[in-house]
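sanity check this chain:
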Amino acid sequence: MELNGVLVVDKERDWTSHDVCAFVRSRFHIKKVGHAGTLDPLATGVLVLLLGRMTKCSQAYSSCDKEYFGTLRFGLKTDSHDITGKVIEEKDWKSVTPQNLQTAFKAFCGTIEQTPPMVSALKHDGVRLYRLARAGKTVDRPKRTVTVHEFRIESVDLPEVRFFARVSKGTYLRTLVNDLGEFLGTVAVLSELRRVRSGDFSLSDAVSIGELKKWTDRQVQNAVRSFVSTSAVE
């Protein structure tokens, strides 16, 4: 099928972004399918797929801000900075209070620097960092400047905290959580993450994997056309 446009998918947990692209490519026989901003396997929510000639517009779509709801858990540190990684440290979190939590969240708003985790898709000398991490290797990673527009507490049930974040392109939420734990003198991991918006696209625009499995070619054609009309490429 020849399709050129945007399809927004509500990614399920444990699917990689590549898995979703491959599924859509195979299910609807579309030659070119890419995405505008990856989601880790742990994460769910808005994954913007670019179809056909629209894959050339990846930079325009991926450079937008993104919004998330997530849950962090104090007391654990992993190699990936999320709950799926190998536990490398356990630490008491009793020093965390509602007061210093508010201070910590405010401290990470604005323009900040992050050191990307070893378990990531970034490359070092042409090799994905996660491949080096699997081999037990650690390399220096340049810091990245990102912007955290909004980072607020939604609810507290220690050792867990539910939060909302609106961030710029390239922000690692799991690293933000890791750094927050260090700021508070303990350790923390990301245990849940759901992307609710990517640029102009929100969950209300998204179709689930389950729905896609039932869709006809006509349904996906109609969905792609309607999504293209909601976002302009500069």
User: Anything to note?
Assistant: The domain at 66-196 is CATH 3.30.2350.10 (Pseudouridine synthase). Residues 130 and 233 are 32 Å apart (CA to CA). The first helix runs from residue 17 to 28. The first strand starts at residue 5 and ends at 11.
